[in-house]
Write a structure and sequence with these properties.
870 residues; 80% helix
Length: 870
């Protein structure tokens, strides 16, 4: 769900109006000023109407996790708009009304100039907001535009193929087809302009700073790489020479559009893709239902028109089916059946005079209605899936890990039962046993990719189980293999290994699920509470500012009309404070108590303003001012309390993220040092068992680092996990290669190659973690800046000596705090032998500059005894 495209366009209206309010006029200055004040007030009301519409969109965006970015964008714009409507516009109205009451022309003109300056500021702000919304409109409508173009081109291609079947040479087509040929050329010419506009939209979005910018750049590169903008011209040229070649050129345009759509869809979470596809299916269902209703009333002359409409629906169903193949394999078969039925309907509608036969018409209409029902049911299914994802998004990996763990346990039991059957079987039953073993291996292999994504350790064990299962198949494929007594133990041993590896993989997945559950239980709640506390603090400070503005207005006000207006505004503010009090109390007891006092004070001020001629009595007016100031002070104090809470929670999160990242770095450095020590031992001719011990520890460290990186909430590049998994595999293969009595034995140069690759994997992982550290530091700096901005907003009373909430913002640009160089002998002397070796080795070796800081930090941690003993 995106902001409605019309919203961005409508939003430009206030921008245009603002710039025309103080245009040259022939009216007297005082009259002009008054008219302008009325116009400015009308504009303020129009702005408020826009706010209401935006709030409705904001509510829709808040329902879905995948629209979090758009929700934040629109919320930010809405906040700015609210500031313009509540602060800037009323100030201009006030200046204009003052100008209309001045006796001197010069005074009137002076206020008009000040008001004009204010209006220009408003205009600039509104235009900036409109630009942001227009970009969102482009993003929201781009997919629909691409889909419409792809469908249109599919129809064009079909028409060209139909012409080509008559004669591939356009000049030899029957005369009655000249109109169809001219239309085909016109379509491609029009498409060229559409593709140019599409490229311009992509270019704007690719150059706009947003989380989706990379996806738009990739889509733009795809469009350029395929030469989409120039292909229609090529199609037009071929339509004049060879229709078969023209149809091929049109097909290339269709494929290019689909490739661009795929680039854009790839950036979206599955929930969003399901929602969009469900929307498409509902539109198809509605179109199909309309066709079903119109078919019984159609005449024979309408048959070709009906056929073309059905073909268009078939094209849409083809696109939907292709999208489903990436989202829901179970639904693909149903979508394919729907598509096939639609194609059969199109062919049936090609039967001459079909609509003149009542029974055939009824049959077609019934089939069309059945298709509409199936499309609607499929849409409902996808919507339900999207809703389920939204509800369980945070726990999805955990649930998937548990489900796969159960599946592996079940497969292990199947393997155990198969082993029992094999032990008692003869050669006559080999074929049946081989078939069962093949089915089991297929299930293991089909689950392997999903398992690897969740847990590299479980993925490795699953892969080994699949290999062993394939070995069992090969043995059972040998004729009369089980009739030889000495062969049965080989099969039994291999089947036992399959079962053990599956159980081991299941255990690794269960551990992963538990780790994910623990991480989820800790992280999101704290983040949400910090966000809520910050938002509540901002709201309270805004209310304090409104109260201060009311107090200032009360000081200058006089008369019954002004008093009534102030009383109404104070009463409205009281309601807002009471609403804020409930939220504040849930987040912080002290803030809740202060807000409750503010609510009482605001209610008291409202009651005071009900007294007749109160503003005419100096003592009563002074008392009102004191009450209103106390309300503002209490609201500010409550806001500061919540702000401090939000900062503390954010700091705790940041510290935890830094510590987790540092722990992952330590494990990679541990793996790196173990590999280097193993290399040095091999060069010195150390016993193979000692080298194997080093390499085994390196593999364990790689695996542990991989698990840590996967569990990190901070953005760790995918390449880090891949490098750590490869490092584990290379270290493991090098270790196994040193055992000369096994089939895994490797030549010395191959072992050296594997250790060198493991070292390279560690370097790649460190570079990726360095990138993650930089992103984490940037995120933390942004959060600190937001906190500092919130703390400094008008209305907050901050003393000179009050500590700044962002005092550590600058220091967080570094990955870890810099410490003094390690030179204390007593610290180093406490290290165990392996740690001293690693420390000496790291100090001697030249490392790549991109992870120099990480290596130095590891050296410090090693010297401090913070790293597991090698």
């Amino acid at each position: 769900m995106k902001p409605h495209p019309a919203l961005a366009t409508a939003f430009v209206l206030p921008c245009c109006l603002t710039g025309t309010l103080l245009a040259q006029t022939t009216l007297p200055p005082r009259t002009a000023a008054y008219q302008h004040s009325v116009s400015q007030e009308q504009l303020r009301l129009e702005t408020r109407r826009q706010e209401v519409e935006m709030l409705e969109v904001l509510g829709e965006l808040g329902q879905y996790q995948f629209t979090k970015t758009e929700h934040g964008e629109l919320k930010d714009v809405l906040g700015q708009l609210d500031g313009v409507a509540e602060k800037n516009m009323p100030e201009v109205v006030r200046l204009l009304r003052e100008a209309s009451r001045q006796d001197q022309v010069d005074q009137t003109k002076a206020r008009l100039v000040t008001a004009s300056t204010g209006q220009k500021t408003i205009q600039a702000q509104l235009r900036a907001m409109a630009d942001r919304l227009l970009l969102q409109r482009d993003e929201a409508t781009l997919r629909e535009r691409l889909r419409a173009l792809a469908l249109r081109q599919k129809t064009n291609q079909r028409e060209t193929e139909r012409l080509a079947k008559q004669n591939h040479r356009p000049e030899e087509l029957p005369a009655e087809q000249s109109g169809a040929l001219a239309l085909a050329k016109s379509e491609q010419t029009g498409l060229q302009e559409e593709l140019r506009l599409m490229k311009e939209s992509l270019d704007r979005l690719a150059n706009h700073a947003s989380p989706s910018r990379d996806a738009f750049r990739e889509a733009l590169n795809t469009a350029k790489g395929r030469g989409l903008e120039n292909l229609p011209r090529e199609a037009v040229e071929k339509l004049q020479r060879n229709l078969n070649e023209a149809a091929h050129a049109e097909d290339r345009i269709h494929e290019g559009l689909m490739a661009v759509m795929e680039n854009l869809d790839a950036r979206k979470p599955k929930e969003q893709q399901l929602q969009e596809l469900a929307k498409d299916l509902r539109q198809m269902a509605a179109q199909q239902e309309r066709l079903a209703q119109s078919t019984p009333q159609a005449k024979t002359a309408d048959q070709q028109s009906l056929k073309k409409e059905q073909e268009k629906l078939s094209d849409q169903m083809e696109l939907a089916r292709e999208a489903l193949e990436k989202l829901d394999q179970q639904a693909v078969s149903e979508a394919r059946k729907i598509e096939e039925t639609s194609n059969q309907l199109s062919e049936k509608l090609d039967t001459q005079d079909l609509l003149s036969k009542a029974d055939k018409v009824a049959e077609v209409a019934d089939t069309q209605q059945a298709l509409a029902d199936k499309l609607e049911a499929l849409a409902e299914n996808l919507t339900a899936q999207a809703k389920q994802i939204a509800e369980n998004d945070a726990s999805q990996p955990e649930r998937q890990a548990r489900a796969l763990a159960e599946k592996l346990q079940d497969l292990a039991k199947q393997q155990d039962n198969l082993a029992k059957e094999t032990a008692e079987a003869t050669g006559a039953k080999q074929e049946e046993l081989k078939k069962q073993q093949d089915q089991l291996a297929a299930q293991v292999e089909s689950a392997q990719k999903a398992i690897e994504n969740l847990s590299p350790e479980a993925g490795q064990k699953t892969q080994e189980a699949a290999k062993e299962s394939n070995r069992v198949e090969e043995m059972l494929g040998q004729q009369s293999f089980l009739d030889t007594p000495e062969n049965k133990p080989q099969v039994a041993d291999a089947q036992k290994k399959v079962s053990e590896q599956l159980q081991s993989a299941s255990k690794a997945l269960q551990d992963k699920a538990q780790a994910l559950a623990e991480a989820r239980a800790q992280q999101p709640d704290a983040a949400q509470m910090a966000e809520q506390a910050a938002a509540a603090a901002e709201k309270l400070k805004s209310l304090a500012q409104q109260q201060e503005q009311l107090a200032e207005a009360a000081e200058e006000a006089a008369g019954a009309e002004a008093q009534a207006d102030l009383q109404q505004k104070q009463a409205a503010l009281s309601e807002q404070i009471q609403q804020a009090q409930a939220e504040a109390a849930q987040l912080n007891q002290t803030a809740g108590a202060k807000t409750a006092e503010a609510a009482k004070g605001s209610q008291s001020a409202s009651e005071q303003l009900k007294q007749q001629n109160m503003l005419a009595q100096a003592d009563q007016k002074a008392k009102l001012g004191e009450t209103q100031q106390q309300v503002a002070d209490q609201l500010n104090a409550a806001g500061e309390q919540l702000q401090a809470q939000a900062e503390a929670m954010l700091q705790s999160q940041q510290d935890a993220a830094q510590q987790a990242l540092a722990a992952a770095v330590n494990e990679v450095m541990n793996a790196r040092s173990q590999v280097q020590l193993a290399q040095r031992q091999m060069e010195q001719g150390t016993a193979a068992e000692q080298v194997q011990e080093r390499l085994g520890k390196a593999a364990e460290a790689f695996d542990k680092a991989n698990q840590m990186a996967a569990a990190l909430a901070s953005p760790v590049p995918k390449a880090v996990g891949e490098a750590l998994q490869e490092g584990k595999e290379n270290a493991g293969e090098a270790k196994a290669g040193l055992d000369k009595n096994t089939p895994q034995a490797l030549p010395a140069e191959k072992v050296a190659e594997k250790t060198a690759e493991a070292l390279q994997n560690a370097d790649q992982a460190l570079a990726g973690l360095q990138e993650a550290a930089a992103q984490l530091a940037a995120q933390q700096a942004v959060e600190d800046q937001k906190m500092a901005q919130n703390a400094a907003k008008p209305g907050q009373q901050q003393g000179k000596n009050q500590p700044s909430s962002s005092k550590n913002a600058n220091s967080r640009g570094e990955f870890m705090e810099s410490r003094s160089e390690v030179s204390d002998f007593s610290a180093i002397s406490k290290l165990r032998g392996g740690q001293r070796d690693a420390l000496d080795l790291l100090k001697q070796e030249k490392v790549s500059p991109e992870y120099e800081a990480l290596v130095q930090q590891y050296i410090r941690n090693l010297a401090d005894g913070q790293v597991p003993t090698p």
